[in-house]
Amino acid sequence: MPDLQELGEAIKRGDRDQSAMLTNAAIAAKVPAQEILDVMVAAMDVVGQRFQKNEIFVPEMLIAARAMKESLALLEPLLVDAGITPIAKAVIGTVEGDLHDIGKNLVAMMWKGANFDVIDLGTNVSPQKFVDAVRDNNAQLVGLSALLTTTMPAIKATVAALKAAGLDTAKVVIGGAPVTQEYADEVGADGYAPDAASAVNVARALL
Amino acid sequence: MKLDQLIASGPVVTDGAWGTQLQTLGLSGGACPDEWNLSHPDLVAEVPRRYVEAGSQIVLTNTFRANRIALTSYDLADRAAEINRLGVEISRRAVGDRAHVFASMGPTGKMLLAGEVSEDELRTVFAEQAQTLADAGADALVIETMAELEEAELAVAAARQTGLPVVACVVFDSGAEHDRTMMGVPPEQAAARLTAAGADVVGANCGQGIAGYVDICRRMRTATSRPLWIKANAGLPEVVDGEVVYRTTPAQFAAHVPALVAAGAQFIGGCCGTSPAYIAAVGKEIRK
Predict the structure, then answer these.
(1) Structure pTM?
(2) Which of chain B's residues have a Cβ under 8 Å away from the Cβ of A59?
(3) B244 shares contact with chain A (CB less than 8 Å)
(4) ipTM of the complex
(5) A94 and A137 housed in the same domain
(6) Contact status, residue A59 vs residue B113, Cβ threshold 8 Å
(7) Rg (CA), chain B
Protein backbone atom coordinates (compact mmCIF):
# COMPACT_ATOMS: atom_id res chain seq x y z
CA MET A 1 0.00 0.00 0.00
CA PRO A 2 1.55 3.30 -1.05
CA ASP A 3 1.97 5.84 1.69
CA LEU A 4 -0.47 8.67 0.99
CA GLN A 5 0.60 10.47 4.11
CA GLU A 6 4.14 10.60 2.72
CA LEU A 7 2.73 12.08 -0.49
CA GLY A 8 1.13 14.85 1.54
CA GLU A 9 4.39 15.48 3.39
CA ALA A 10 6.34 15.60 0.12
CA ILE A 11 3.97 18.25 -1.25
CA LYS A 12 4.17 20.26 1.96
CA ARG A 13 7.96 20.45 1.77
CA GLY A 14 7.87 21.04 -1.99
CA ASP A 15 9.76 17.86 -2.86
CA ARG A 16 8.56 17.50 -6.43
CA ASP A 17 10.52 14.33 -7.27
CA GLN A 18 9.26 12.53 -4.19
CA SER A 19 5.67 13.71 -4.65
CA ALA A 20 5.66 12.64 -8.31
CA MET A 21 7.12 9.27 -7.40
CA LEU A 22 4.55 8.72 -4.64
CA THR A 23 1.70 9.86 -6.91
CA ASN A 24 2.76 7.35 -9.55
CA ALA A 25 3.03 4.66 -6.90
CA ALA A 26 -0.47 5.41 -5.65
CA ILE A 27 -1.82 5.35 -9.19
CA ALA A 28 -0.06 2.02 -9.86
CA ALA A 29 -1.54 0.59 -6.65
CA LYS A 30 -4.98 1.61 -7.94
CA VAL A 31 -5.75 3.98 -5.09
CA PRO A 32 -8.94 5.83 -6.11
CA ALA A 33 -8.13 9.13 -7.81
CA GLN A 34 -10.41 11.06 -5.45
CA GLU A 35 -8.47 9.75 -2.46
CA ILE A 36 -5.14 10.84 -3.94
CA LEU A 37 -6.57 14.23 -4.86
CA ASP A 38 -7.94 14.74 -1.36
CA VAL A 39 -4.50 14.14 0.13
CA MET A 40 -2.94 16.67 -2.23
CA VAL A 41 -5.56 19.35 -1.54
CA ALA A 42 -5.30 18.76 2.21
CA ALA A 43 -1.52 19.17 2.01
CA MET A 44 -1.90 22.49 0.20
CA ASP A 45 -4.41 23.58 2.84
CA VAL A 46 -1.77 23.01 5.50
CA VAL A 47 0.73 24.99 3.41
CA GLY A 48 -1.80 27.82 3.18
CA GLN A 49 -2.39 27.76 6.93
CA ARG A 50 1.34 27.87 7.64
CA PHE A 51 1.64 30.83 5.30
CA GLN A 52 -1.19 32.65 7.04
CA LYS A 53 0.46 32.03 10.40
CA ASN A 54 3.74 33.44 9.04
CA GLU A 55 5.49 30.13 9.64
CA ILE A 56 6.47 29.98 5.99
CA PHE A 57 6.76 32.60 3.24
CA VAL A 58 6.23 32.86 -0.51
CA PRO A 59 9.22 30.66 -1.51
CA GLU A 60 8.01 27.66 0.51
CA MET A 61 4.47 28.17 -0.78
CA LEU A 62 5.73 28.36 -4.36
CA ILE A 63 7.69 25.13 -4.26
CA ALA A 64 4.82 23.29 -2.55
CA ALA A 65 2.41 24.50 -5.23
CA ARG A 66 4.83 23.42 -7.93
CA ALA A 67 5.06 19.91 -6.47
CA MET A 68 1.26 19.81 -6.21
CA LYS A 69 0.86 20.97 -9.80
CA GLU A 70 3.18 18.26 -11.15
CA SER A 71 1.48 15.54 -9.12
CA LEU A 72 -1.93 16.78 -10.17
CA ALA A 73 -0.88 16.57 -13.82
CA LEU A 74 0.02 12.91 -13.30
CA LEU A 75 -3.38 12.31 -11.76
CA GLU A 76 -5.29 14.26 -14.40
CA PRO A 77 -6.13 11.34 -16.78
CA LEU A 78 -7.54 9.31 -13.89
CA LEU A 79 -9.60 12.23 -12.66
CA VAL A 80 -11.04 12.60 -16.13
CA ASP A 81 -11.81 8.87 -16.34
CA ALA A 82 -13.47 8.95 -12.93
CA GLY A 83 -15.53 11.97 -13.93
CA ILE A 84 -14.00 14.07 -11.14
CA THR A 85 -14.05 17.72 -12.15
CA PRO A 86 -12.51 20.76 -10.49
CA ILE A 87 -14.74 22.12 -7.73
CA ALA A 88 -15.18 25.47 -9.43
CA LYS A 89 -14.30 27.36 -12.55
CA ALA A 90 -12.54 30.62 -11.74
CA VAL A 91 -11.57 33.61 -13.85
CA ILE A 92 -8.77 35.74 -12.45
CA GLY A 93 -6.91 38.86 -13.55
CA THR A 94 -5.33 42.17 -12.56
CA VAL A 95 -7.71 45.02 -13.32
CA GLU A 96 -7.49 47.56 -16.10
CA GLY A 97 -4.56 49.95 -15.91
CA ASP A 98 -2.62 47.77 -13.47
CA LEU A 99 0.30 45.70 -14.70
CA HIS A 100 1.27 43.97 -11.47
CA ASP A 101 0.91 40.23 -11.57
CA ILE A 102 2.80 38.72 -8.64
CA GLY A 103 -0.10 38.77 -6.17
CA LYS A 104 -2.56 37.61 -8.79
CA ASN A 105 -0.23 34.76 -9.80
CA LEU A 106 0.05 33.60 -6.20
CA VAL A 107 -3.73 33.49 -5.83
CA ALA A 108 -4.08 31.61 -9.13
CA MET A 109 -1.50 29.13 -7.90
CA MET A 110 -3.27 28.54 -4.58
CA TRP A 111 -6.66 28.24 -6.29
CA LYS A 112 -5.23 25.61 -8.61
CA GLY A 113 -3.82 23.90 -5.53
CA ALA A 114 -7.35 23.76 -4.11
CA ASN A 115 -8.48 22.07 -7.33
CA PHE A 116 -10.20 25.05 -8.94
CA ASP A 117 -10.06 25.31 -12.71
CA VAL A 118 -8.36 28.70 -13.09
CA ILE A 119 -8.52 30.84 -16.23
CA ASP A 120 -5.86 33.53 -15.89
CA LEU A 121 -6.61 36.61 -18.00
CA GLY A 122 -3.29 38.26 -17.11
CA THR A 123 -2.85 41.95 -16.25
CA ASN A 124 -4.52 45.16 -17.40
CA VAL A 125 -7.81 43.33 -17.99
CA SER A 126 -10.78 45.49 -18.99
CA PRO A 127 -14.20 45.04 -17.33
CA GLN A 128 -15.56 43.84 -20.66
CA LYS A 129 -12.88 41.16 -20.93
CA PHE A 130 -13.81 39.91 -17.45
CA VAL A 131 -17.49 39.88 -18.44
CA ASP A 132 -16.77 37.93 -21.63
CA ALA A 133 -14.54 35.39 -19.88
CA VAL A 134 -17.01 34.80 -17.05
CA ARG A 135 -19.86 34.35 -19.51
CA ASP A 136 -17.95 32.20 -22.02
CA ASN A 137 -16.57 29.90 -19.34
CA ASN A 138 -19.63 29.92 -17.14
CA ALA A 139 -17.33 30.75 -14.22
CA GLN A 140 -18.62 30.62 -10.65
CA LEU A 141 -15.72 32.56 -9.23
CA VAL A 142 -13.91 35.77 -10.20
CA GLY A 143 -10.65 37.05 -8.74
CA LEU A 144 -9.79 40.75 -9.16
CA SER A 145 -6.42 42.13 -8.17
CA ALA A 146 -5.09 45.69 -7.95
CA LEU A 147 -1.78 46.74 -6.47
CA LEU A 148 -2.12 50.47 -6.92
CA THR A 149 -4.40 52.87 -5.12
CA THR A 150 -4.86 54.54 -8.49
CA THR A 151 -6.08 51.41 -10.25
CA MET A 152 -8.29 50.20 -7.41
CA PRO A 153 -11.33 52.03 -8.87
CA ALA A 154 -11.16 49.59 -11.81
CA ILE A 155 -12.23 46.89 -9.34
CA LYS A 156 -15.44 48.82 -8.74
CA ALA A 157 -15.97 49.25 -12.48
CA THR A 158 -15.44 45.52 -13.08
CA VAL A 159 -17.84 44.47 -10.32
CA ALA A 160 -20.42 46.88 -11.74
CA ALA A 161 -19.90 45.53 -15.28
CA LEU A 162 -20.43 41.94 -14.10
CA LYS A 163 -23.66 42.94 -12.35
CA ALA A 164 -24.85 44.94 -15.35
CA ALA A 165 -24.23 41.90 -17.56
CA GLY A 166 -26.40 39.79 -15.27
CA LEU A 167 -23.43 37.72 -14.12
CA ASP A 168 -23.88 38.37 -10.42
CA THR A 169 -24.17 34.65 -9.71
CA ALA A 170 -20.38 34.53 -10.11
CA LYS A 171 -18.80 35.30 -6.75
CA VAL A 172 -16.20 38.05 -6.83
CA VAL A 173 -13.16 37.93 -4.55
CA ILE A 174 -10.88 40.97 -4.53
CA GLY A 175 -7.41 41.62 -3.17
CA GLY A 176 -4.14 43.52 -3.54
CA ALA A 177 -2.03 45.83 -1.38
CA PRO A 178 -4.45 48.77 -1.03
CA VAL A 179 -7.64 46.68 -0.95
CA THR A 180 -9.58 46.22 2.29
CA GLN A 181 -12.75 44.52 3.49
CA GLU A 182 -14.38 47.96 3.70
CA TYR A 183 -13.56 48.57 0.06
CA ALA A 184 -14.99 45.15 -0.88
CA ASP A 185 -18.21 46.03 0.93
CA GLU A 186 -18.33 49.45 -0.68
CA VAL A 187 -17.98 48.18 -4.26
CA GLY A 188 -20.24 45.17 -3.74
CA ALA A 189 -17.62 42.42 -4.06
CA ASP A 190 -18.58 39.13 -2.42
CA GLY A 191 -15.29 38.64 -0.63
CA TYR A 192 -11.94 40.13 0.25
CA ALA A 193 -8.74 38.12 0.69
CA PRO A 194 -5.74 39.72 2.41
CA ASP A 195 -3.34 37.10 1.00
CA ALA A 196 -3.12 34.17 -1.41
CA ALA A 197 -3.82 31.50 1.21
CA SER A 198 -6.90 33.34 2.50
CA ALA A 199 -8.17 33.57 -1.07
CA VAL A 200 -8.77 29.82 -0.98
CA ASN A 201 -10.81 29.94 2.22
CA VAL A 202 -12.77 32.99 1.13
CA ALA A 203 -13.60 31.37 -2.22
CA ARG A 204 -14.65 28.09 -0.64
CA ALA A 205 -16.93 29.89 1.80
CA LEU A 206 -18.64 31.68 -1.10
CA LEU A 207 -19.14 28.68 -3.37
CA MET B 1 30.97 62.56 -5.10
CA LYS B 2 32.27 60.80 -2.01
CA LEU B 3 29.71 59.08 0.17
CA ASP B 4 31.76 59.35 3.36
CA GLN B 5 32.08 63.11 2.90
CA LEU B 6 28.35 63.31 2.43
CA ILE B 7 27.58 61.59 5.73
CA ALA B 8 30.50 63.11 7.64
CA SER B 9 28.42 65.94 9.05
CA GLY B 10 25.48 63.81 10.20
CA PRO B 11 22.40 62.13 8.77
CA VAL B 12 21.53 63.09 5.22
CA VAL B 13 17.99 64.09 4.21
CA THR B 14 16.90 62.31 1.04
CA ASP B 15 13.61 62.89 -0.76
CA GLY B 16 10.02 61.68 -0.47
CA ALA B 17 7.57 59.88 -2.73
CA TRP B 18 7.51 60.41 -6.48
CA GLY B 19 4.49 58.42 -7.64
CA THR B 20 2.01 60.03 -5.28
CA GLN B 21 3.55 63.46 -6.03
CA LEU B 22 3.19 62.99 -9.78
CA GLN B 23 -0.45 62.09 -9.18
CA THR B 24 -1.02 65.44 -7.50
CA LEU B 25 0.45 66.98 -10.66
CA GLY B 26 -2.08 65.18 -12.83
CA LEU B 27 -0.65 61.75 -13.57
CA SER B 28 -3.59 59.43 -14.04
CA GLY B 29 -3.91 56.01 -12.43
CA GLY B 30 -2.51 53.27 -14.59
CA ALA B 31 -0.37 55.59 -16.70
CA CYS B 32 3.37 54.95 -16.70
CA PRO B 33 4.96 57.64 -14.47
CA ASP B 34 8.32 57.23 -16.19
CA GLU B 35 6.74 58.06 -19.55
CA TRP B 36 6.24 61.58 -18.23
CA ASN B 37 9.98 62.14 -18.71
CA LEU B 38 9.12 62.21 -22.43
CA SER B 39 5.72 63.88 -22.38
CA HIS B 40 5.71 66.12 -19.27
CA PRO B 41 9.34 66.91 -18.35
CA ASP B 42 8.41 70.24 -16.75
CA LEU B 43 5.90 68.64 -14.40
CA VAL B 44 8.36 65.87 -13.49
CA ALA B 45 10.93 68.57 -12.66
CA GLU B 46 8.49 70.01 -10.11
CA VAL B 47 9.02 66.97 -7.87
CA PRO B 48 12.81 67.29 -7.28
CA ARG B 49 12.49 71.09 -7.27
CA ARG B 50 9.95 70.95 -4.42
CA TYR B 51 12.03 68.40 -2.50
CA VAL B 52 15.15 70.51 -2.72
CA GLU B 53 13.21 73.51 -1.50
CA ALA B 54 12.02 71.37 1.40
CA GLY B 55 15.61 70.50 2.28
CA SER B 56 16.48 67.32 0.39
CA GLN B 57 20.23 66.87 0.03
CA ILE B 58 19.65 63.98 -2.33
CA VAL B 59 16.88 63.67 -4.90
CA LEU B 60 16.06 60.60 -6.95
CA THR B 61 14.93 60.36 -10.57
CA ASN B 62 11.72 59.39 -12.33
CA THR B 63 13.23 56.13 -13.56
CA PHE B 64 11.88 53.61 -11.05
CA ARG B 65 10.18 51.48 -13.76
CA ALA B 66 12.60 52.30 -16.52
CA ASN B 67 14.17 48.87 -16.86
CA ARG B 68 13.36 47.17 -20.14
CA ILE B 69 11.22 44.42 -18.58
CA ALA B 70 8.96 46.75 -16.59
CA LEU B 71 8.68 49.12 -19.56
CA THR B 72 7.64 46.27 -21.85
CA SER B 73 4.33 46.07 -19.98
CA TYR B 74 3.71 49.67 -21.00
CA ASP B 75 4.91 49.12 -24.58
CA LEU B 76 7.78 51.49 -23.90
CA ALA B 77 10.79 49.15 -24.00
CA ASP B 78 12.21 50.84 -27.08
CA ARG B 79 12.21 54.19 -25.26
CA ALA B 80 14.17 52.83 -22.24
CA ALA B 81 17.43 54.66 -22.95
CA GLU B 82 15.68 57.96 -23.56
CA ILE B 83 13.48 57.69 -20.45
CA ASN B 84 16.49 56.96 -18.24
CA ARG B 85 18.67 59.69 -19.74
CA LEU B 86 15.90 62.29 -19.45
CA GLY B 87 15.14 61.15 -15.90
CA VAL B 88 18.65 62.07 -14.76
CA GLU B 89 18.70 65.28 -16.78
CA ILE B 90 15.34 66.46 -15.43
CA SER B 91 16.37 65.97 -11.80
CA ARG B 92 19.80 67.51 -12.41
CA ARG B 93 18.36 70.58 -14.12
CA ALA B 94 15.76 70.99 -11.37
CA VAL B 95 18.21 70.94 -8.47
CA GLY B 96 21.42 72.28 -10.02
CA ASP B 97 24.19 71.97 -7.45
CA ARG B 98 21.82 72.24 -4.50
CA ALA B 99 21.41 68.44 -4.18
CA HIS B 100 22.92 65.21 -5.41
CA VAL B 101 21.06 63.19 -8.01
CA PHE B 102 20.77 59.51 -7.15
CA ALA B 103 19.11 57.56 -9.96
CA SER B 104 16.28 55.20 -9.09
CA MET B 105 16.19 51.57 -10.23
CA GLY B 106 13.14 49.54 -9.21
CA PRO B 107 12.19 45.89 -9.66
CA THR B 108 11.16 44.27 -12.93
CA GLY B 109 7.89 43.01 -11.44
CA LYS B 110 8.78 39.45 -12.42
CA MET B 111 9.58 36.79 -9.86
CA LEU B 112 12.89 35.00 -10.30
CA LEU B 113 11.87 32.21 -7.96
CA ALA B 114 8.71 31.45 -9.93
CA GLY B 115 10.72 31.27 -13.15
CA GLU B 116 9.00 34.35 -14.60
CA VAL B 117 12.39 35.80 -15.51
CA SER B 118 15.94 34.43 -15.67
CA GLU B 119 19.05 35.66 -13.87
CA ASP B 120 20.62 36.48 -17.22
CA GLU B 121 17.66 38.60 -18.27
CA LEU B 122 17.86 40.51 -14.98
CA ARG B 123 21.62 41.05 -15.36
CA THR B 124 21.12 42.36 -18.88
CA VAL B 125 18.30 44.81 -18.18
CA PHE B 126 19.84 46.19 -14.98
CA ALA B 127 23.27 46.59 -16.60
CA GLU B 128 21.66 48.45 -19.47
CA GLN B 129 19.66 50.77 -17.20
CA ALA B 130 22.57 51.39 -14.82
CA GLN B 131 24.95 52.31 -17.64
CA THR B 132 22.44 54.69 -19.22
CA LEU B 133 21.85 56.42 -15.87
CA ALA B 134 25.61 56.66 -15.27
CA ASP B 135 26.28 58.03 -18.75
CA ALA B 136 23.59 60.66 -18.17
CA GLY B 137 25.53 61.88 -15.14
CA ALA B 138 23.86 60.35 -12.07
CA ASP B 139 25.89 60.77 -8.86
CA ALA B 140 24.89 57.32 -7.56
CA LEU B 141 22.41 54.53 -8.25
CA VAL B 142 19.60 53.52 -5.87
CA ILE B 143 18.18 50.02 -6.19
CA GLU B 144 14.92 50.20 -4.28
CA THR B 145 11.63 48.56 -3.35
CA MET B 146 13.00 45.09 -4.01
CA ALA B 147 10.85 42.21 -2.76
CA GLU B 148 13.21 39.47 -3.87
CA LEU B 149 16.72 39.70 -2.44
CA GLU B 150 18.18 37.74 -5.36
CA GLU B 151 16.88 40.35 -7.82
CA ALA B 152 18.42 43.10 -5.67
CA GLU B 153 21.76 41.28 -5.62
CA LEU B 154 21.80 40.96 -9.40
CA ALA B 155 20.91 44.66 -9.73
CA VAL B 156 23.73 45.61 -7.33
CA ALA B 157 26.24 43.60 -9.34
CA ALA B 158 25.06 45.27 -12.55
CA ALA B 159 25.08 48.76 -11.00
CA ARG B 160 28.59 48.31 -9.60
CA GLN B 161 29.99 47.91 -13.09
CA THR B 162 29.37 51.63 -13.66
CA GLY B 163 31.80 52.57 -10.89
CA LEU B 164 29.16 54.77 -9.21
CA PRO B 165 28.24 54.36 -5.53
CA VAL B 166 25.34 51.91 -5.17
CA VAL B 167 22.50 52.06 -2.63
CA ALA B 168 20.43 48.86 -2.28
CA CYS B 169 17.09 48.63 -0.49
CA VAL B 170 14.51 45.92 0.07
CA VAL B 171 10.91 46.13 1.30
CA PHE B 172 9.90 44.76 4.69
CA ASP B 173 6.15 44.17 4.68
CA SER B 174 5.66 40.53 5.63
CA GLY B 175 5.61 38.33 8.70
CA ALA B 176 3.69 38.82 11.91
CA GLU B 177 5.98 41.70 12.92
CA HIS B 178 6.37 43.12 9.39
CA ASP B 179 10.08 42.45 9.71
CA ARG B 180 10.47 40.13 6.74
CA THR B 181 10.59 40.65 3.01
CA MET B 182 7.87 39.03 0.90
CA MET B 183 10.22 36.07 0.59
CA GLY B 184 10.67 35.83 4.36
CA VAL B 185 14.15 37.37 4.62
CA PRO B 186 14.87 39.12 7.96
CA PRO B 187 16.77 42.45 8.19
CA GLU B 188 20.09 40.94 9.31
CA GLN B 189 20.23 38.60 6.35
CA ALA B 190 19.19 41.29 3.88
CA ALA B 191 21.86 43.69 5.15
CA ALA B 192 24.58 41.03 5.13
CA ARG B 193 23.79 39.81 1.64
CA LEU B 194 23.42 43.25 0.08
CA THR B 195 26.76 44.17 1.64
CA ALA B 196 28.35 41.00 0.30
CA ALA B 197 26.90 41.80 -3.13
CA GLY B 198 28.88 45.03 -3.04
CA ALA B 199 26.35 47.72 -2.13
CA ASP B 200 27.96 50.86 -0.70
CA VAL B 201 24.81 51.76 1.25
CA VAL B 202 22.13 49.29 2.30
CA GLY B 203 18.64 49.86 3.58
CA ALA B 204 14.92 49.52 3.29
CA ASN B 205 12.01 51.42 1.81
CA CYS B 206 8.24 51.27 1.32
CA GLY B 207 5.97 48.54 2.69
CA GLN B 208 5.08 50.14 6.04
CA GLY B 209 5.21 53.26 8.14
CA ILE B 210 8.25 54.72 9.85
CA ALA B 211 7.67 53.28 13.35
CA GLY B 212 8.37 49.71 12.23
CA TYR B 213 11.56 50.72 10.45
CA VAL B 214 13.31 51.79 13.65
CA ASP B 215 13.83 48.22 14.82
CA ILE B 216 14.53 46.98 11.29
CA CYS B 217 17.25 49.63 10.99
CA ARG B 218 18.75 48.60 14.34
CA ARG B 219 18.84 44.99 13.20
CA MET B 220 20.42 45.86 9.85
CA ARG B 221 23.04 47.87 11.78
CA THR B 222 24.15 44.67 13.55
CA ALA B 223 24.82 42.94 10.24
CA THR B 224 26.68 45.53 8.16
CA SER B 225 29.18 48.34 8.57
CA ARG B 226 27.80 50.14 5.51
CA PRO B 227 25.78 53.35 5.94
CA LEU B 228 22.03 52.69 6.23
CA TRP B 229 19.29 54.22 4.09
CA ILE B 230 15.64 54.24 5.26
CA LYS B 231 12.59 55.56 3.42
CA ALA B 232 9.32 54.62 5.08
CA ASN B 233 5.76 55.23 3.91
CA ALA B 234 3.45 57.78 5.51
CA GLY B 235 1.72 54.83 7.14
CA LEU B 236 -0.36 52.42 5.09
CA PRO B 237 -2.90 53.70 2.60
CA GLU B 238 -6.53 53.68 3.67
CA VAL B 239 -9.57 54.31 1.56
CA VAL B 240 -11.91 56.92 2.98
CA ASP B 241 -15.00 57.83 0.96
CA GLY B 242 -13.35 56.47 -2.16
CA GLU B 243 -10.23 58.58 -1.65
CA VAL B 244 -6.84 57.12 -0.78
CA VAL B 245 -5.35 58.69 2.31
CA TYR B 246 -2.13 58.18 4.28
CA ARG B 247 -2.87 58.88 7.91
CA THR B 248 0.59 59.66 9.28
CA THR B 249 1.15 63.43 9.39
CA PRO B 250 4.54 65.06 8.70
CA ALA B 251 4.93 65.81 12.43
CA GLN B 252 4.09 62.22 13.41
CA PHE B 253 6.51 60.95 10.79
CA ALA B 254 9.33 63.21 11.93
CA ALA B 255 8.77 62.27 15.57
CA HIS B 256 10.34 58.87 14.80
CA VAL B 257 13.44 60.38 13.18
CA PRO B 258 15.56 60.65 16.37
CA ALA B 259 14.95 56.95 17.07
CA LEU B 260 15.82 56.10 13.48
CA VAL B 261 19.07 58.07 13.75
CA ALA B 262 19.85 56.35 17.05
CA ALA B 263 19.22 53.03 15.32
CA GLY B 264 21.93 53.89 12.83
CA ALA B 265 20.17 55.43 9.83
CA GLN B 266 22.41 57.83 7.90
CA PHE B 267 20.15 58.56 4.95
CA ILE B 268 16.53 59.37 5.82
CA GLY B 269 13.61 60.21 3.58
CA GLY B 270 10.14 58.98 2.76
CA CYS B 271 8.34 56.66 0.39
CA CYS B 272 4.67 56.35 -0.66
CA GLY B 273 2.41 59.07 0.69
CA THR B 274 5.22 61.37 1.81
CA SER B 275 5.60 64.83 0.30
CA PRO B 276 7.87 67.87 0.63
CA ALA B 277 6.13 68.67 3.93
CA TYR B 278 7.40 65.38 5.40
CA ILE B 279 10.92 66.05 4.13
CA ALA B 280 10.89 69.53 5.66
CA ALA B 281 9.77 68.02 8.98
CA VAL B 282 12.50 65.34 8.82
CA GLY B 283 15.17 67.96 8.07
CA LYS B 284 14.01 70.15 10.94
CA GLU B 285 14.20 67.19 13.32
CA ILE B 286 17.71 66.23 12.15
CA ARG B 287 19.05 69.77 12.47
CA LYS B 288 17.62 70.20 15.97
Answers:
(1) 0.92
(2) 113, 183-184
(3) yes
(4) 0.87
(5) yes
(6) yes
(7) 17
